[in-house]
Design a protein that fits this description.
mainly alpha
Length: 152
Amino acid sequence: MPMSQAIEILAKEKDLISDEITRDALALKQKKQKLKEIEDAISILGGPIVSDAKVEPQKAGRLKSVIADCLPPLGGDGLTIQQILDNLKLMGLDTAKTTIATTLTRIKKDNLAKNIDGKWFSTKSESPNNVGLSKELGEVPKTPNPIGDIFA
């Protein structure tokens, strides 16, 4: 076998292995992110990690309700993802920015939020602004607004 053919075969094998490593790294990153989201969801729900646990749909939407409720109405000052993350931390809900971004996208698809220049607003006519949980989940104490009384 000529040297050039051997080099070509080895180069193709190297490329295949490199592609496989890239795919495996991406799959691992996605699995780690999914695991983090699951852990965040468990933390938000306040429960221990239990295998085969059934989560009530009402509680599974808690983060969505909390975020939707804390968005200011259109016409006011919107909130960035970082500000929403900070608000959630003050409420004792520690989650990842990517989880918030995904949740905001779902809220937007439900026509409950709008993004203008990186700032998020509620499209509901009445936004409770940092009340916390939706009425279906019960009353909770009001959390002070960490960025002042801009919604008052």
